[in-house]
Amino acid sequence: MSIERRSMFSRFTVAMPFLWLAAFFLLPFLIVLKISLSDDAVAQPPYAPVFNFGEGWAALREKLSMLDFENYSFVLGDWLYVYSYMQSLTLAAVATALLIVVGYPVAYAIARSPRGLRPILLLLVILPFFTSFLIRVYAWIGILSREGLLNQMLLSLGAISQPMEILATNAAVVIGMVYSYFPFMVLPLYAALEKMDDTLLEAAADLGATPSQAFWRVTVPVSAPGIVAGALLCFIPAVGEFVIPDLLGGSETQMIGRTVWNEFAVNRSWSVASALAVLILLVLLVPILIYQRMQLRDLERR
Amino acid sequence: MEMAASKTQKPQSVRRKFEPWADPAAEPLIRFENVVKRYGDVVAIDGVSLDIYEREFFALLGPSGCGKTTLMRMLAGFEEASEGKVVLAGSDLSGVPPYRRPVNMMFQSYALFPHMSVADNIAFGLKQERMPRDEIAARVDEMLKLVNLRGFEKRKPHQLSGGQRQRVALARSLAKRPKVLLLDEPMAALDKKLREQTQFELMDLQQRIGTTFIIVTHDQEEAMTVADRIAVMDHGKLIQVATPAEIYEQPNSRYVAEFVGDVNIIEAAVTRVTTSDTTLQADMLDAELRLTQRTDAKTGDRVAVALRPEKIRIAKEPLSEVHANCAQGVVYDIAYLGDLSIYHVHLDNGFVLKAAKTNLSRQIEPPIDWDDRVNLSWTPDAGVLLKS
Amino acid sequence: MAMRKGLSPVTVTALAGGLAFLYVPLFLLVIYSFNDSRLVTVWGGWSTRWYRGLLQNQALMDAAWVSLKVAAVAATLATALGTLAALALVRAGAFRGRTLFAGLVYAPLVMPEVITGLALLLLFVAIDFDRGFWTVALAHVTFTMCFVAVIVQSRLLTFDHSLEEAALDLGATPLRAFFSVTLPVILPAVAAGWLLAFTLSLDDLVIANFTAGPGNTTLPMRIYSQVRLGVTPEVNAISTVFIVVITAVVLSASLAMKWQQGKVEGRQ
User: Fold this and answer.
1) Labelling B279: which of A151, A160, B64, B259 has CA 20 to 30 A away?
2) In order of start, what are the domains of chain A with their CATH numbers?
3) How many other C-beta atoms can be found within 10 angstroms of the C-beta atom of residue A56?
4) Which residue of B has its CA nearest to C182?
């Protein structure tokens, strides 16, 4: 509305959150980028150069020339780091695929259930999300450990004779991810399935499709945006996951989120940690842009 | 709306002669001067100039997307003209925000505030102008009485029926005693029976309070029922501004003739023009076409003539005199509407004419049936020459 | 089978399986918090001793208090900013930089926390802002406001814009129209946004780990340091308290919202 566009109030609504996000989200990333091009130093803060805009142009130019891609060549030259990226992407992808397989039937069942029951079922799916993430991951330690409840149960049933080693493996990490991100997959899937017009399936049946044909040729394609949204919502944060690999993973688990933390907190190499973070962002840039695109498109379609 | 007043008072049956637009000395209340509205490259309003007078009930009629709503929203202040100006009671409205205009609007969705009671909804505008509390209470009561909703003041909008909500919306938009009331498709959400009843009540109300009403509608019957004058719009332009009878009987263009009511369009060439009438030769008619209407067209010009189906007499009996304004053909379709029937008649030369016939007797078997050979005829004042 | 809305054996199984997957680990956690044995895997009979221990754990109580303060401050600021961001996205039309703005609002939703945390820490160091209560709170405002924005945005999308126009038409300035009409109508979504921001802040470990100062250990940080030492009945007890409190709050809030909504726009 032309009137609203001009109003002070409208400008305020844009300016406040914009400035906040620019200061506390965009600016920090620029700083990360800058530090990733710096060198470590035994100082406070532990990197060099430190820009001080009071020093004038010459000093600034000199310091700018100190920036280089050393950290990147170091990171990319070290097989351990590269392996860490690959493993993060693989584990996140496996977890996302499993989430689709596990989440779709649940979302579908909720969308099919009687109208009055749906908000309750949805609340049941979301409720664990509200309880602590950390606690949910912790709960699996007791289940998956060598003396844990899963092994106890399987042993007493006679299904296995030796306790399985699940905790401290990548399998445990994937289980933890599937568990933790479950609501993030189910919600967008449900939203897509719930919107679907029932008469589409009736039309498919009327035109001779069996229920399973109708499901694969109508329901699944119609809910595709939900699948993509759910997959992105799980995959992107899972790649940089820290808590799950730290608590459920073992020595074989080298996920990148943990590596960043180790570089930062243990090795105190802020510049390498920054370079690692920038590289994660580069890898995730495309999925993040796709995700934002979808969000924006949802916003316009009204 | 069951108006309390219409039950107690004797309704004013005679509508006084009211045509300020015909009086050159009359000052219009609202004046659109060469108004243009563009959204990027799209021209929504294309050079509209229009005068609307005090106490008038004015209708903006056209299909969706014709610009009628944009024109109304300019008056309310939700859109600004790209060119030209909108003048209300002598003062230019440009740059005046909606909340400073003495104009109120009744929204198509009613836009009743869901979290407020009926009384709070009606009082909303009065509170904005900081009217004293007791005056607000009195005005709200007056409005409730006007729309016959006393006893409902504590209800929330969701506790009302569709018709009651519509009346609350009306009361709310009238509470500030605006100079002009804008009604955006006010009856779109009502079913047909209630809509017809409401139209008459709206007319009575407008007569009693004397406020200028401007209604936007795509329903030609509604516009013809309620309005003193109608502006027919298309693609952001005013096509014709006239009284309902003029719009129907003297459409100035093919567009208006086809938009309002059912019509046969006959293309013809002018063969003779006199001071009082015009004779034409139409391709679809074997006989010549005579109209008691003078024209600026010259002999040989191609023109279009609009002929309403109800003005065509349809009969099985042969005609007594056969030289002008007639045609012969075979009935190939009948639309039985109860009160009248529309016959689609295939003329011998392949063209089709529609003729309407009032069903005067209670015969189940139609007096004229499919495949009957019929004669069509009409008087010279039945058809109208269209300018474009 | 898939034709009608309704539950077939297949969908019931899917639902039961999914819900069991979600809840069995939590139930086990709760049950073992009442285990008398210190060994988590051996059942030693019912006991509430670990809960009694919690109250004496001063460090834990301090951390809980820090977390609650951070969450309350962060959620309140995030709700204000997130609501404004949603209004900007849905209402302000095509202003310059809108795509960048939308990107900034949606990116934190999926951004790995490690990166957000590191970036914010480096910002605080660069501007020489001592890490403490406010650094955690500001960091939490930043990532939770985006969740608020998404919730409020989806409510605004179904909000009948003519309500606001009607208010303007009746003489309310845009600011008054917002406070007397728009805000009351979208209030349930705003409240839900606050609640989500509050729980997200209460729950956050990674970003707090980066941005918290030495004296401001939050509850998840405290729990984490205990969890790293292995499964103990104490942690189970803390977790149970956490689960019970959050569940109670979320359930009563959603019931309250439902009731409120029923009052505003319910049908007979």
Assistant:
1) B259
2) 69-300 (1.10.3720.10)
3) 9
4) B113
